[in-house]
């Protein structure tokens, strides 16, 4: 007797399969688990995939969807049990009028000093590029986020943006 069920990896990839793979890639990129370059190259691979096995190879090493978001919440709750809860209201941050660069962190030599223990000694840097203020993470332990998105590259700041440095929250005001 012959087994007539096709090998799932050899089945043709449908449009829905491709969209599902791209959603998984986008979710991992949003959680800061894929760099921008890796995300773009994998999306191209997903769009070019002919078989489900090829799509599985594109997303096979990603964590389960939402895993890191749940882990981040658990880590934040653990951290708050040690150092206390995050301030309910963000601190207003007015961007400096003069162009240049300004280092944010706990160190006494930083241009903007934050005393929260979740902020690294040299956490992030504000820099002016062609009149636009940008923020760059300086390899901080707890990461830097703009409007909830973890920084991977230099990111522009606009009035109303929320900047999270560890558990410290700042709101950019004009």
Automatic annotation (TrEMBL):
Keywords: Phosphoprotein. Residues 102-151 form the FHA domain. InterPro entries: Cell_Proc_Reg/RNA_Proc, DUF1707_SHOCT-like, FHA_dom, SMAD_FHA_dom_sf. It comes from the Bacteria. CDD domains: FHA. The keyword Phosphoprotein applies. Pfam families: DUF1707, FHA. The keyword Phosphoprotein applies. This is Peptide-binding protein. It comes from Phytohabitans rumicis.
């Amino acid at each position: 007797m012959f087994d007539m069920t096709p090998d799932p990896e050899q089945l043709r990839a449908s449009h829905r399969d491709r969209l599902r793979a791209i959603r998984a890639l986008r979710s991992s990129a949003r959680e800061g688990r894929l760099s921008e370059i890796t995300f773009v190259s994998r999306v191209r691979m997903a769009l070019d995939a002919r078989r489900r096995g090829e799509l599985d190879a594109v997303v096979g090493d990603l964590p389960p969807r939402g895993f890191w978001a749940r882990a981040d919440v658990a880590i934040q709750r653990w951290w708050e049990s040690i150092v206390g809860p995050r301030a309910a209201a963000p601190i207003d941050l007015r961007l400096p009028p003069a162009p240049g660069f300004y280092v944010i962190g706990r160190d006494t030599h930083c241009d903007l000093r934050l005393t929260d223990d979740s902020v690294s000694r040299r956490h992030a840097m504000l820099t002016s590029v062609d009149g636009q203020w940008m923020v760059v993470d300086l390899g901080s332990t707890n990461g830097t986020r703009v409007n909830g998105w973890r920084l991977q590259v230099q990111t522009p700041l606009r009035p109303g943006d929320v900047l999270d440095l560890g558990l410290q929250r700042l709101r950019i005001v004009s």
